[in-house]
Fold this protein.
Amino acid sequence: MKALMAVILMLLAGAGAAQAAADSVAVFHRAEKVGVLLNERGAYGRIQQFMDAVGAEARYRWLSADESVKIECAREDVRATCTIRFLPSEIVKIQGRSVKAFVATKEFPQSFEMAFESSMEDRFNLVLTPEGIELWAGKRGQQP
């Protein structure tokens, strides 16, 4: 019985590690532009939930009024990806090795949050509220 429990625990631990390995975030930082790439596997992962929250089907594209923030996402049944691009502006602040943006808009009536962190400690946070969208991305050692 103990051997069976040990095998079950190892399988469950392996499944969690396999899922974590299927998720990724990478932040590409330059003074003139910051890019974020998100990839995720799972039938109802964070990107899938984000696309549901904004009412998207297979593809989603959003551009801020001043074009300094661009979000592009695509999904299939069990995988999804997003690319987020930031350009310096009044609403986008690129400081050190991080970027922060708040876009006031009424386009997102449903509140939603998602966060990603990589093994290399790249991080990305997104918060939708009825008042707007807040985004933050950073390299290792950076804090929102």
